[in-house]
Write a structure and sequence with these properties.
CATH superfamily of the largest domain: Periplasmic binding protein-like II
Number of domains: 3
Shape: elongated
Largest sheet: 3 strands, parallel
CATH class of the largest domain: Alpha Beta
CATH topology of the largest domain: D-Maltodextrin-Binding Protein, domain 2
Helix content: 40-55%
Number of helices: 8
Number of strands: 5
Distance between the termini: 68 Å
CATH architecture of the largest domain: 3-Layer(aba) Sandwich
Amino acid sequence: MKKRMMGLAVFVALVMLAGPVLAGEVQQKLTGESTLEQVLKRGVLKVGMSTFVPWAMKDKTGKLVGFEIDVATRLAKDMGVKVEFVPTNWDGIIPALLSGKFDVIIGGMGILPSRNLKINFTIPYDTSGMSLVASKELAGNFKTLEDFNRPEVTLAVRLGATPVAAAQRFMP
């Protein structure tokens, strides 16, 4: 029994000593392969984005403009790298990020637990809400949420955006 306890103690001691060594190796590997390190080595920050007026859109000449474009451009400048925009459909933007098509998403994305399980969010740089908008002619006297929840009313929401879940919940 003493030999067995001694062997167990030696095993535990070896594991305890190996733990920091292995953790250091893992940390070095992660640091060396981090997205930030890749961007700095490459010299280009690849930004996944989707046009959404007025945040990110094309002007009359086809140039990308808007607040999110300005944020991405400034981030790249502060990092000392160039910026490359990768236009992506909003409903596929998270899978595209996870597959490595770009380094970061810069866009007005609602922070949801289901999304946060897959990706990391920064501190928000702005906040917004959701609103129902209708033409005066078509909406008539709509005043409540229930007024919109009728079979003859068609809602349009951006695929993959937070309002899809709200529409499904409140407008079955």
